[in-house]
């Protein structure tokens, strides 16, 4: 069901409770029960008509839980792509729980010849529908073949898409692709904050519970200082993520800072846990894997800093 726009904190609590109570729920069930698939879809198309704050709240909770749901690519990127070209029918489908993935310029080698799409996208996020920016247009196309990857980070499914001269449905021009990318970066940054916060919480809990020499290890200065540094990273990343949807510069800042912050916090969480932190049974390694795969999703931190250099210094 769709819901009226809610405060970010209320939405965050609803998503957290749902993920805890129904961890195996499908994307369509999530869309029906909570309405997050249509979070950014205008109310006249069956969505909630929410904005960046609500988007960040949901993304943060999904990152905290390492959820595999396609919120980033479908509820954020695909919705923005459809909105930019007035694809009302597609917006209604997305709000109803149909998932989609978006292929940005540079994600693959695609060629649009008239009404036919040819090429390969080596790595794409999962989605039932495929929206691709190719030949200066936004098109919807059905791949000739899909091949799912077996990845170290099982919480972020990836696939290869092949197009062998398949027919396309033109949705509009491709002028809005940069905004789609930046909203994706903003949603990813919020996910990274959620994951980093969970890693910090785990590290603090362990430091209170684990004793050495008759004292909690959190009482030792080395651990205290490490946790204080991690708290600074998480809060700074949260500030960057909260502004990420404003413009391309803010998105690039968040893309660089939140990525590196998550990598550091996830790695230090393992160190605080010691031997147990590297065992398969403990979840710490799963967050480190997500942090590592996130670092490549929209380009590594240095790519975001290069974009910043172009805007701020006027040089590439």
Automatic annotation (TrEMBL):
Source domain of life: Bacteria
Q: Which cofactor does it need?
A: FAD
Keywords assigned by UniProt, alphabetized: FAD, Flavoprotein, Oxidoreductase
What GO annotations for molecular function exist for this entry? Answer: acyl-CoA dehydrogenase activity; flavin adenine dinucleotide binding
Q: Which residues form the Acyl-CoA dehydrogenase/oxidase N-terminal domain?
A: 23-89
Acyl-CoA dehydrogenase/oxidase C-terminal domain sequence ranges: 187-312
Q: Which InterPro entries match?
A: AcylCo_DH-like_C, AcylCo_DH/oxidase_C, AcylCoA_DH/ox_N, AcylCoA_DH/ox_N_sf, AcylCoA_DH/oxidase_NM_dom_sf
Report any Pfam family annotated for this entry. Answer: Acyl-CoA_dh_N
Family statement: Belongs to the acyl-CoA dehydrogenase family.
Its recorded name reads: Alkylation response protein AidB-like acyl-CoA dehydrogenase
Q: Which organism is it from?
A: Nonomuraea rubra
């Amino acid at each position: 069901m769709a819901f009226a726009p809610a405060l970010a904190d209320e939405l965050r609590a609803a998503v957290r409770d749902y993920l805890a109570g129904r961890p195996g729920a499908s994307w369509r069930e999530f869309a029906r029960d909570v309405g997050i698939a249509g979070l950014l879809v205008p109310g006249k198309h069956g969505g909630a008509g929410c904005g960046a704050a609500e988007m960040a709240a949901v993304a943060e909770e999904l990152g905290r839980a390492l959820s595999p749901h396609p919120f980033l690519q479908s509820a954020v990127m695909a919705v923005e792509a459809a909105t930019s070209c007035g694809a009302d029918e597609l917006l209604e489908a997305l709000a109803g729980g149909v998932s989609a993935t978006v292929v940005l310029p540079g994600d693959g080698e695609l060629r649009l010849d008239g009404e036919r799409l040819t090429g390969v996208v080596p790595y794409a996020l999962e989605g039932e529908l495929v929206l691709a920016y190719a030949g200066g247009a936004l098109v919807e196309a059905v791949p000739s073949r899909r091949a799912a990857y077996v990845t170290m980070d099982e919480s972020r499914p990836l696939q290869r898409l092949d197009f062998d001269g398949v027919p396309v449905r033109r949705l509009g021009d491709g002028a809005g692709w940069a905004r789609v990318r930046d909203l994706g970066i903003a949603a990813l940054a919020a996910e990274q904050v959620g994951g980093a916060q969970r890693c910090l919480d785990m590290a603090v809990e362990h430091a209170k519970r684990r004793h050495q020499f008759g004292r909690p290890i959190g009482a030792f200065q080395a651990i205290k200082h490490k946790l204080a540094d991690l708290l600074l990273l998480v809060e700074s990343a949260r500030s960057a993520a909260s502004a990420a949807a404003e413009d391309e510069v803010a998105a690039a800042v968040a893309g660089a800072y939140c990525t590196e912050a998550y990598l550091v916090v996830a790695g230090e969480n393992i160190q605080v846990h010691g031997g147990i932190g590297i065992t398969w049974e403990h979840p710490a390694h799963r967050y480190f894997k997500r942090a590592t795969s996130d670092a490549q999703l929209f380009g590594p931190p240095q790519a975001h800093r290069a974009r910043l250099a172009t805007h701020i210094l006027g040089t590439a």
